Amino acid sequence: MPAGINIPNYDDIRQTEGFKNVSLGNVLSASYGSKSEKPVSFLKPEDQEMYKDLQGKAFEVQVGIHELLGHGSGKIFNLEEKSTFESTVNPLTGQPVTGPFYGPGATWDTTFGNMASSYEECRAESCGLYLCLEADALAAFGHSAGSADGGPVDITYINWLHMARAGFLGLEFYTPETGSWRQAHMQARYVILRVLLEAGAGLCELRRTTGADGKPDVQVVVDRSLVQTVGKKAIGDFLVKLQVHKTLGDVAAGGAMYSEYSKVPEEMLELRKIVMARKEPRKLMVQPHLCLGSDGGVELKAFEGTTAGLIESFVARFPAQDEELLELYRSEKASHVY
């Protein structure tokens, strides 16, 4: 880990009142808690069980690093402070930095414009991938970094696999007709997928296959044995480029690089058709309702996980006229002394 970074113990963080009230764990449990018998799309059979078991925990590590050390890091060089960094060496050139730097009033968003959001999400996601290889980072989330074969531990492998799959699924959010992306995070993950594919050596592959239904399918494959070598170097080098261009305010070089990785060539457009053909219905999170039964006891009323069930849930919890609330109002009004 970089010197000077002190990561608090995750168990301590969990005990804070804010974390208890708004817990990322609640969201992850809802998203990844249930283990369906249905295979996860675009994964090899041998990855299915481990992926279902660890995707929630892996994503928790990814999000934690993404937010705290991804968005929480990254120096910006402002022109008026040039004297404090003019001797800094640009790691991409080996020479002292030459700008263009951020002028008076300029910010990251105003400089990089429409690209800023996705570019920044990509930088944070890359931090998550790179640092989840570090023992200290895993330990902060309560995970061991030990591995008998010297390769990445299961949770790190699943995090990398999850990111590669997310990048592939991200093709859904690309509009071929306009050549544009509709979602910043999905574009960022697709860019990372392109970086992993570009690394070569068999680190990451999109294997065309035929599904059990006889229709075209794809398997997203990450070679676990190459994650800590080929993978780490690829993401590390890419992360340096992302950060240098951001730090210097170099929208010309940074924008050109990011736009190139964001392109969806013809072969990817063909694979996008498979993504769209196998798109699953959006998951619905339907709230149950606690109410008083006819015997005065508390009852839990559940609803089907369908659009109709979602509407029924809202109607039950937010009726046009809430008799219990009205009765409380009448009771308090009667006892109020004016």
How does this model look, in words?
- This protein has 14 helices and six strands.
- It is mainly α.
- The chain folds into two domains: 10-277, no CATH class; 289-335, no CATH class.
- Strands 1-2 form a two-stranded antiparallel ribbon. Strands 3-4 form a two-stranded antiparallel sheet. Strands 5-6 form a two-stranded antiparallel ribbon.
Please tell me what the overall shape is: globular
> β content, as a range?
5-15%
Termini separation comes to 65 Å
- What Rg, in angstroms, do the CA atoms define? 25 Å
Write a brief structural summary.
The chain is built from 14 helices and six strands.
Feature tags:
338 residues; mainly alpha; 2 domains; two-stranded antiparallel sheet; 8% strand
Topology, pairings included?
Elements: H1 10-14, H2 17-21, H3 24-32, H4 45-70, H5 108-112, H6 116-131, H7 135-140, H8 154-169, E1 174-175, E2 180-181, H9 184-199, E3 204-210, E4 216-222, H10 227-248, H11 251-262, H12 266-277, E5 289-292, E6 298-301, H13 307-317, H14 323-335
Antiparallel strand pairs: 1-2, 3-4, 5-6
